[in-house]
Structures are given as C-alpha cells and as structure tokens.
Backbone:
C-alpha cells in the first residue's frame, strides 16, 4: 500500500483511474494541481505522492558568515576551509540581533577528539569578527548547537555552521 498521485482524467463525469478502481481508496484525500492523491494497493508503477514539507517559521535571529580570511582555501559557499596548523583564520559576518554589540563565544570542536577551542567574537553594529589560531591539525567544526550551548534559550541563533581541515 502506498500513497500515489495521478492526473485527473475524466470520461464524462467519471474519473478514469490508471488501474482497476477497486485498488484505490481515499481518493477524496486531496487534489494537488489538478492531480488526484489516493491510497493504492496495486502493482502498477504509479508515481508516489510525497507532500511538500510545510514551511515552519523560525523566529531566531541569524548568524551568517560573510567572509573568511587567512586560510589557504575557502569554499565559495563559505561552509568549508583548509588552513595550516597555527595559521590565523578570521571569520566575519552578521549577527541579526538588534541593538546588541555584546561579544559572544564561538566554540569550535575538533571532530575526531572532541577537543573544543573557544573564539571570542567581537560585535560592532551587527557585524562580528572572530579570530582563531588552530593549534593542531584535524577536522574542526562549529554550528548552531555549539554556539547556542553558551547562550540563554531566548538568545539562540540560527546558524548553518562551518567545517575546516587544518593540516600540518
């Protein structure tokens, strides 16, 4: 049994099914863009219906990285970088918290050992800057869960995060 979607085809007032009509149920579930959604128990290869996810509004302010300077390589999307051990990496971006120039902590975890280093992000007029010298090689990451770990629940931020490989 699966939920399928098929085009509405009519023969007069009758709906034409792509297979034996007795193999379909709940045809009144919904129609999507002129197509019928129904539960189907037959063997034909009829398109499976996968509903669009509902939009969920996330009221948290956003933390976004707009530039990364210092590393040998930075992805175009600003989600990944490669640097050398001891190299200074500067993260700059926006923090969408009105009237707040309060610095914040940006924890960065080494994925293989769990070691955490902390960068102090300075904020001025909604723009933050965090400078980090990665002490040892490894895969390092920061994300919303890490950043929000040290913030009050009503101060949590949206943040897609970033990963970086630090080499010797």
Residues:
């Amino acid at each position: 049994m699966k939920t399928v979607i098929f085009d509405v085809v009519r023969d007069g007032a009758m709906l034409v099914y792509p297979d034996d009509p007795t193999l379909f149920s709940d045809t009144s579930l919904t129609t999507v863009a002129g197509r019928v959604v129904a539960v189907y128990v037959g063997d034909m290869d009829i398109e499976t219906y996968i509903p669009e996810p509902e939009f969920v509004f996330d009221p948290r302010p956003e933390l976004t990285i707009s530039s990364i300077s210092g590393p040998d390589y930075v992805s175009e999307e600003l989600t990944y970088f490669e640097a050398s051990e001891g190299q200074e990496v500067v993260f700059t971006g926006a923090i969408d918290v009105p009237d707040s120039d309060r610095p914040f902590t940006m924890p960065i975890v080494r994925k293989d050992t769990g070691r955490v280093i902390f960068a102090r992000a300075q904020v001025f007029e909604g723009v933050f800057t965090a400078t980090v010298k990665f002490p040892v090689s490894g895969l390092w990451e920061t994300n919303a869960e890490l950043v929000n770990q040290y913030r009050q629940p009503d101060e949590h931020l949206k943040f897609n995060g970033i990963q970086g490989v630090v080499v010797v």
Summary: Residues 144-148 form the longest helix (5 residues). The mean pLDDT is 87. The chain has two domains: 1-56, 63-167.
